[in-house]
Amino acid sequence: MTDLAAELNGLFAPPPATSLAPEVLSELQSILRLHGLSAQELSYKWESYTMKMGSESTVLNFDNVRAFKKELQEMLERDSRGKAGRSVDRRTHATPRGGGMGDDVFGMFDSTIPNTPLQHRSTKPSTKRKAAFETPAVPKFSKADGMSSPTDGRANGQTNGLPSAPFSERPNAGQIVETLNGQLPPFELPLAPAAEPRVKLTANTDLKKFFYKPMAMHLSEASEVLDDRIDQLQTLIQTHHNLEDSAFGSAASQSTNEVIAVGRVACDSPDGKFNAASMLLEMSRRGGAGLRIPLNVEKLSHQFFPGQIIAVRGINASGSYFSVSEILEVPLPPPVVNQPAVLSSYNERLGLSDGDSSNANHALNVMIASGPYTADDNLSFEPLNALCEQAAESYADVLVLIGPILDVDHPLLASGDFDLPDDPSIQPDKATLNDVFRLLIGTPISALAQRVPNITIVMVPSVRDAVNKHVSWPQEPFDRKVLGLPKQAKVVSNPVTFSLNESMVAINASDVLYDLRSEEVVIGKPKDNSLLSRLPRHLIEQRHFYPLFPPVDRTILPKPGTVDGVATGMPLDLSYLKLGEWLNVKPDLLITPSTLPPFGKIVESVLVVNPGSLSKRKGPGTYAQLAIHPRHITAEEQTEKMIPHNLYDRARVDIVRI
């Protein structure tokens, strides 16, 4: 019991505390006994619970743990009733169940948890200025009796649970819920917008390669791409550890000699549960004839997930499995470096000469948001309008909008039964989704561009975006002309790497962190107990935006707002998986939107930001506000040929309620 208590303290004790209150610890142990869970599984369920409740409602105290225990018990009872109901004959007119009562832990809280926004630090805009960003109100969805066509469960246009509270009545709008590098000052509001753009945007990704023909994948091409990933990392590992070619071998070959094998972690069954007992190593054709062999990793402490490329040292004495004695470290990419003169030129662009680089007047104001951008029961896009208003009020230098922007999983879009605002250029019976985008999303973006002409708006698509013809990942950019976006809007691919002045930014619109959390298996004691730090480290080590293979099963993902809906998931085009590889350096800033709690963290000298969703299904969400200060160059560094950017040390990150 002492070991269990220590494990619970390590997983649940909020820093800087090292132990839980006795009554809280006792209650957590009671939950473990009642449900037969491990401490790690319980921590995952607690994280899911806090995601829906909101951080201010889920402080780890006795009352909240009791409420958490009650929710788990109610979910177990609902599951039992559902299984019992499926064992008897179906009734023709059974009472329909709301989608919020599904098996997923996210759906079970939707009808019970209010979303509590937080306090804002900026001044309230006047009614006249705010009106510039408001899209004409879209009537709430309703089906006239007898007038609707038969539809499936996914596109029935219904939303689950109670309607969301009016967005205009949200309390504490704009409160900062988390801060990274709080010792740095936030950006200082200028008296007027800059006369010239303070940001130079440079694409580090060849966007033309993303305009490929989707849904034309060949098995031979997919196999070669997967093999190339293994061979490339084997070369890196061999160089990093200074190993001879003779040290490597096939893990599938029976031998009493110790060898090093490099391959991809896989599960022994396509439909099976990935765990230590089902773990295989799949080798490339060059390194092991493409064979698979079970791994024995019981003596190790490590984290694994399907698709992870690892180098293992061990023996295969019996020919039936490979016994692993060591996992070799995968070398990390080097940091981005630049010439001091180049960094000085960017500092001058921000108005800094020999002054203090920590002066808030010189900081770049960068705002980052991720979709969805409106609640499930309306298409008014009020959170997007509020975000554009805040960007205009603060004279933002950069606004990053990450998809889904026009979400194909939105109940009203899925049904196709909704009204558009009056527009003389659009005939209602001939309107397309591009027209919907222009009216509901293009309007506030164009208004923002008019008020802040020197702003840079970066738009990244998602596989859930209804107006992007690429249904698989990687994706081509939005069509700016068709969607009527202003010149300030820079449309980029998904994923993408670009530079904001000197800083290299990497963005992937897919929720890879949630997918990794769903599949990750931790054996022994993890090197990093923080889940939100450990998951981005996988991306850095694997040098890929989406290292998972195969992608997570759609049925275990959080359900969309439609009744009996299934999440879009992560459709991969394996022939072009190489477009998701990183460059040969670590980015300064990695943006990974996720349904996991929003955060800003420093992982392996990379600033990692999850802005959260701007709108939840039934309430407002969060966005990230960055104040990027200039790179102060010392006298010693002026004589160096190359110096690192050190963005993680000079960027303040605030997670803010919209």
Automatic annotation (TrEMBL):
InterPro entries hit by this protein: DNA_pol_a/d/e_bsu, DNA_pol_alpha_bsu, OB_DPOA2
UniProt KW keywords: DNA replication, DNA-directed DNA polymerase, Nucleotidyltransferase, Nucleus, Transferase
Ranges of residues in domain DNA polymerase alpha subunit B OB: 223-329
GO biological process, one term: DNA replication initiation
One annotated Gene Ontology cellular component of this protein: alpha DNA polymerase:primase complex
A GO MF label: DNA-directed DNA polymerase activity
Biased composition (Polar residues): 148-162
The keyword tRNA-binding is assigned to this record: no
Subcellular location: Nucleus
DNA polymerase alpha/delta/epsilon subunit B domain mapped to chain residues: 366-601
Residue numbers spanned by region Disordered: 77-166
Ranges of biased composition (kind: Basic and acidic residues): 77-92
Residue spans of biased composition, Basic residues class: 121-130
Protein task: Accessory subunit of the DNA polymerase alpha complex (also known as the alpha DNA polymerase-primase complex) which plays an essential role in the initiation of DNA synthesis.
Family of this protein: Belongs to the DNA polymerase alpha subunit B family.
Protein name, UniProt field: DNA polymerase alpha subunit B
Source organism (scientific name): Ramalina farinacea
